[in-house]
Specification:
alpha+beta, five-stranded antiparallel β-sheet, 593 residues, 49% helix, Helix Hairpins, Beta-Lactamase
Length: 593
């Protein structure tokens, strides 16, 4: 069973409420954000793949347009008429060689053949005199009135593409031969390799019949060139969809495609550019985002728990402290340090409750003190009438016996005991009478530094006998206050004697004063055994004592006098390691009187 069931229940309830509100809202918001973000991210991925396919198709159309237009323009150049004289001065061959060099890696070779297919001029001198490669008739197109024919042939792990364009005579309506441009198809494949990325994307270029005429490295290595394995994927042109990855990969893929739309005057060949990516690789950002959201949700849950625990603890802490304070007082009847209530209604409740308990405690102490003092008063009356007279007779008799000459040494010692004990009983009666019927103080302007110095001087003999060092640190700027000088002397003497009686040989007592505008403060500290914290509230009670031979009235009288002057006194630990008595005496005591 919990020690504090009500506050702990409040704390648990608050924590559950905070976690419920915080976590439920966090989960709902995080889930909604994740769903929306996942949808947006997937749409962005698909749009990116679609745009990428359209970009590749457009770039392919542009490349083919540039090559076809080159073929159409070059076929009408005057230098092509050198075919009529079989390029006897090699001027056409040099021209073709310069063109190939000028265009870098765009063309594998440039050649002109006669009507019988014999190579008359070529960028490759070794090919002159030979016969052209036939190639498979593939596509025809008309560009600026010039008919161009594309042929396709398979090479080792690649494709060969040729552009043939007829060369007509400028002087007669006859065909001199044709211009053949052998395209470097590696350049087309390098475009697909560049566009493909490290996230598993592969690209393929399909002709109108669905054959793979160019592909990125992964598909080339799988031997898919000039195959129709991806023919049905042409249906994804202009849209995004998922499909089995065979024969590209063994997992599901997302496919984006776009048809070629031509470029400038070139209407295109209706080729299809495909962008293929494994679904798991394509959606990897979504999965990463899911992990981030889960981590974020876990962080929010942890923060909610920490903050909820802190807030619930903060709210319940004053109630727990107040309950502990009340139970401690009920159990030990000792008023502990008041709990901090904080701000707001709980703070006001704590403050009011602590004030009420404090008032009850003060009332109880006053009632106990009043009861004890009432007993002392009754006893004092009896003692005054019934004891003091016999004590006086006994003391007088002892004094007479002390002067007798025939008394033995042992008798002298016993008479001394009688005198000392009667003196002690007389002091006890006087102290009880002073406590029971305290005299109303007479307020006059008094220099408390002089009172302290005089009191120390009065006890100098006792201090010297026990070798106790008594030091003063009188820092008060204005030590003069309105008080009863005799009673203040009694207060200082009682506190100093209390220290002298408790200290061992070679002890130390420090008397310090300081002041402010309203009060004078006096602190008397020693290096003795100190006062148990549990007993500090009782040291001012009548008949409470710890010292052997004490009667427990000295500190009670001190507190009574200080309270009569409108001040207060408290016991504490001193820096010397022993006890400290701290007095506060107000300056406006005279006005109070």
């Amino acid at each position: 069973m919990s020690r504090f069931p009500i506050p702990v229940s409040i704390r648990r309830t608050l924590l559950i409420a905070f976690l419920g509100v915080g976590l439920v809202s966090a989960i709902l918001l995080a889930s909604l954000a994740f769903v929306k973000a996942r949808q947006a991210l997937r749409l962005e991925i698909e749009r990116n793949m679609s745009v990428e396919a359209a970009t590749v198709a457009a770039e392919v159309d542009k490349m083919m347009f540039e090559r076809l237009q080159n073929a159409a323009v070059w076929s009408h150049l005057n230098i092509m008429q050198d075919l009529q004289v079989h390029d006897v001065d090699k001027r056409l061959s040099r021209f073709l060689s310069d063109l190939k060099s000028g265009y870098g890696e765009v063309y594998s070779s440039l050649a002109c053949t006669d009507a019988q297919g014999t190579v008359i001029a070529s960028s490759d001198p070794a090919a002159v005199g030979g016969h052209e490669e036939t190639g498979t008739p593939w596509l025809k197109t008309n560009l600026s009135g010039t008919v161009l024919e594309l042929k396709l042939d398979r090479a080792d792990h690649s494709v060969k593409v040729f552009i043939d364009v007829p060369i007509a005579s400028a002087f007669a309506e006859q065909r001199l031969g044709k211009l053949r441009l052998s395209l470097d198809w590696n350049e087309m494949e390098s475009v697909l390799d560049r566009t493909g990325s490290e996230d598993g994307r592969t690209l393929a270029l399909l002709d109108e019949s669905g054959r793979v005429i160019a592909a990125s490295r992964t598909l080339r290595e799988r031997g898919l060139l000039l195959s129709d394995a991806l023919a049905e994927w042409r249906a994804f042109a202009g849209r995004i969809g998922s499909h089995s990855g065979q024969p590209v990969v063994d997992t599901e893929v997302i496919i984006g495609g776009a048809h070629s739309k031509g470029y400038a005057q070139f209407s295109g060949f209706n080729w299809t550019a495909l962008v293929v990516q494994p679904t798991d690789r394509a959606l990897a950002p979504v999965h990463r985002m899911a992990m981030i959201f889960f981590a974020l949700l876990g962080l929010i849950a942890a923060l909610t728990f920490v903050v909820g625990t802190w807030i619930s603890h903060t709210i319940a802490l004053p109630i727990v402290a107040l309950t502990r304070f009340a139970r401690s007082y009920m159990r030990d009847k000792v008023l502990q340090a008041p709990p901090t209530g904080g701000k707001g209604e709980i703070g006001e409740l704590t403050e009011a409750f602590v004030r009420m308990v404090h008032d009850i405690n003060v009332s109880q102490q006053r009632l106990v003190r009043a009861s004890k003092l009432a007993v002392v008063g009754e006893m004092s009356s009896i003692i005054a009438h019934e004891i003091r007279t016999p004590l006086g007779i006994v003391r007088s008799s002892a004094q007479v016996l002390q002067r007798e000459s025939g008394i033995s040494a042992e008798g002298h010692e016993l008479v001394g005991f009688i005198q000392s004990e009667t003196e002690r009983l007389n002091r006890l009666v006087s102290a009880m009478l002073d406590t029971a019927r305290p005299r109303t103080p007479t307020f006059v302007e008094t220099d408390m530094h002089e009172v302290i110095q005089r009191s120390i001087a009065m006890l100098a003999g006792q201090a010297e006998h026990k070798r106790v060092r008594v030091s003063t640190h009188l820092h008060a700027v204005a030590p003069i206050i309105a008080c009863d000088e005799d009673q203040m002397t009694q207060v200082i003497l009682n506190l100093l004697m209390n220290g002298l009686q408790i200290l061992h040989q070679g002890g130390a007592i420090d008397v310090t004063t300081h002041d402010d505008r309203a009060n004078l403060f006096i602190e008397i500290a020693d290096d003795g055994p100190g006062i148990d914290p549990a007993e500090r509230s009782r040291v001012f009670e009548a008949f409470f004592f710890k010292r052997e031979g004490g009667i427990g009235l000295g500190l009670a009288i001190v507190q009574q006098i200080v309270n009569a002057h409108g001040g207060d006194i408290e016991a504490d630990d001193s820096l010397l390691g022993g006890a400290l008595f701290r007095l506060r005496l107000p300056r406006n005591t005279l006005e109070m009187a």
